[in-house]
Specification:
alpha/beta; 35% helix; Rossmann fold; 2 domains
Amino acid sequence: MDSTDGIRRIAINTGGGDAPGLNAVIRAATLAALENGWEVLGIRRGYMGLLQDEVDGEPGLLPLSARSVSGITHLGGTLLGTTSRGNLFGLEVRESDGTWGDRDPSAEIMARFEALGIDALIAIGGDGSLKIAHRLFLKGLRVVGVPKTIDNDLGATDMTFGFQTAVDVATDAIGRLHSTAEAHQRVMVVQVMGRHTGWIALESGLAGGADVILIPEIPYSVEKILEKIAERERTRRRFSIIVVAEGAKPAGGAPSYADSTGRYGGIAAQLAEEIERGSGKETRTLTLGHIQRGGSPVPFDRNLALRFGAAAVHAVERGNFGCMVALQGKSVRSVPLGDAITDIKRVPVDGEMVHTARRLGVCFGD
């Protein structure tokens, strides 16, 4: 697989958590590839479709045509399905008894690509999925990556599709809480996604008029939060809205986990208990969870996803493998995949948005 000549068949897969806009990428990449006269195969649920003839009762490989991708740009989810499970190499393997295996199937996967005559793979995913794609590239597979994460935390791209939709959903929810919080004079704690970065919490909290925004980049103190609530009470504002990223952590502490598997999710309940005990005010929680991932992507995400899909096919045309398409400024460019997955893009604690929020009286718990 050294030459770019004679591309006849490419494959597309989606991995990791879903994001609004995945179907738009699939549609754009499929139509652009078909324009070149290439055949396009969709791999179901990450790489499972290569390892099994059937996945969940459906063929493991799905031929993609103009008809099969028609009318999917506005749809959430992914036509191909996705998965977050995997072994030490990050590839999902289900054994014959239904359990999840821990063997490394990468050699088998490489052999399957060869046997199927797949000349290149467009891998759509976040940092975890793209690390898998990069490992396969180092093993000889011709790969182009497309960045996907609602957390917007990939350092090589200014924006990932799905992020603006997640912010829109969270902002709407926060805005709706103001009236009920004020009516009952309650504190409302809204938990949004963001394991390692606080982009969703910051942008939705600022747009939604939150009083406190807690993000992983700024460790918080419950005492500072209680001071903010007390300050509002003194000025006859007897309710408060707190937005917290799931990966936020107290100063000197660790993020709150929902269970022993390491899944994030328990911080809203923990905070609410501490706030109610410390302030004496009734405190309720709202965890938005996967609603941030679902539904129709907003126009910005649709257009960015379409641009990424077309750009990925263009990278294949140029033989620019081992790259990831990225939005830099107003243009979509190709960047080395190995560099793209190296750094997490964190919220700058001294950046403009944080400064803006502070000047508006928002408390970050520090």
